[in-house]
Design brief:
The chain is globular. It has helices spanning 7-18, 23-30, 39-45, 68-76; strands spanning 21-22, 49-52, 63-66. 44% of the residues lie in helices and 12% in strands. Helix 1 (7-18) crosses helix 3 and helix 1 (7-18) packs across helix 4 (68-76). With 81 residues, the protein is α+β, with helices and mostly antiparallel strands. It has a 3-stranded antiparallel β-sheet. It contains 4 helices and 3 strands, in the order H-E-H-H-E-E-H. It has a single domain (7-80), classed as Winged helix-like DNA-binding domain superfamily/Winged helix DNA-binding domain (Arc Repressor Mutant, subunit A, Orthogonal Bundle).
Amino acid sequence: MSEPATLLTMQFLAWIDRQPRSYAETMDAWRTSCPHMPVWEDALADELVRVDSRPQAAMGGCMVLLTERGRTALSRAEPLR
């Protein structure tokens, strides 16, 4: 990550880490059109999360997972959780 992760980003990563999350569930909870809060887009661009696409699954049924980089960022922010 080029800049320190924001608290909102850490909340997003912790939310994903708590239990399995589908792409559809993630989009319902975190997608926004507000240019000041692009948490989902930033997490993807910073390679903190990835979408696990399975051949037979529709996009909404794919799972959103933390990457190793995301896990590291979250563990460094552990006191914030």
